[in-house]
Amino acid sequence: MRAALVQIEVRPDEPADARRKRVADLVRAHDGADLVVLPELWPVGAFAFDAFAEHAEPLDGPTAAAMSSAASDAGVWLHAGSVVERGPDGTLHNTSLLFAPDGRLHRTYRKIHRFGFDKGEAALMARGDEIVTAPLDGLGVTVGLATCYDLRFPEQFRLLVDAGAEFLVVPAGWPAARRAHWSLLARARAVESQAYVLACGTAGTHAGIEQAGHSVVVDPWGEVVAEAGPGEETLLVDLDPGLVAGTRADFPALRDRVLGLPLPR
């Protein structure tokens, strides 16, 4: 299975429509891949809070249309990162879009853990409330969906594993100031889940916040398969889906989980 993680530079002087076209062309250029992954909120910038309302769009909006076309043209599974979704009632969500190779919207995931500590995203967007996995027909694997700040919450990833996830796909707009946490947490989630982690970040600067870049692919043993630098870059990696089942069979730690213990009094 070949995966391409496209680490996009979000430039404040690039109009959203121009970026959508540029990113669609990048997706089409990877027609030899099985799965293409884009970062979080790349149409607007993960820290461009003041622009969220202006750039909010429905699930059939301009980003979805461009990404559906690109996925179909390339014949790839496309995790198109996330958009600021505006629901029918006006509520905003940070929503990931997963497209099938025929361009069909296969799954959506609304980010559960919103960053900001009662400011920014946490104040402007509603919380998702659904654990989302998706079988990738033709590849024989199931992916679990999470976004950026979710990476700090292992409980969510345990639930994804319990729901059958073998690959954990994490688009992000992670700040450079905490890049060490990004790499550490991606490896931790891979080791404890005995799953591949495909973590795709952004480059550039969002509303004055320098982005970490350094998209990374980690295997079920916690080994880094590939890692990007700080700038715009694509990681193209060949992965063995059988390694997940092999790891879980050779080192069956997941079966030793003890659940439902009472809290101390």
Largest sheet: 6 strands, mixed
Number of helices: 7
Placed side by side, the strands forming the largest sheet appear as 6-5-4-3-1-15
Give the averaged pLDDT, no decimals: 97
Low-confidence stretches: none
Number of discrete domains: 1
- Give the SSE order as H and E letters: EEHEHHEEEHEEHEHEEEEEEH
Cα distance spanning the termini: 49 Å
CATH C-level category: Alpha Beta
Fraction of residues in H or I helices: 25-40%
SSE-based structural type: alpha/beta
CATH topology: Nitrilase/N-carbamoyl-D-aminoacid amidohydrolase
* CATH homology superfamily name: Carbon-nitrogen hydrolase
Question: Mind telling me the C-alpha Rg?
Answer: 17 Å
- Total DSSP E strands: 15
| Named CATH architecture | 4-Layer Sandwich
Strand content: 25-35%
Tell me what you see in this structure.
It is a single chain. The chain is α/β, with parallel strands linked by helices. The chain has one domain (2-251): Nitrilase/N-carbamoyl-D-aminoacid amidohydrolase. It is 25% helix and 28% strand. The protein contains 7 helices and 15 strands. It has helices spanning 16-28, 52-55, 62-74, 121-124, 154-162, 179-193, 242-250; strands spanning 2-7, 9-10, 35-37, 77-86, 92-99, 105-110, 133-136, 141-145, 167-171, 196-200, 203-206, 209-210, 216-218, 224-227, 233-238. The strands form 3 sheets. A 6-stranded mixed β-sheet has the order 6-5-4-3-1-15. α1 runs parallel beside α3. The mean pLDDT is 97.
Could you give the topology of this structure?
Layout: E1 2-7, E2 9-10, H1 16-28, E3 35-37, H2 52-55, H3 62-74, E4 77-86, E5 92-99, E6 105-110, H4 121-124, E7 133-136, E8 141-145, H5 154-162, E9 167-171, H6 179-193, E10 196-200, E11 203-206, E12 209-210, E13 216-218, E14 224-227, E15 233-238, H7 242-250
Parallel strand pairs: 1-3, 2-11, 3-4, 8-9, 9-10
Antiparallel strand pairs: 1-15, 4-5, 5-6, 7-8, 10-13, 11-12, 13-14
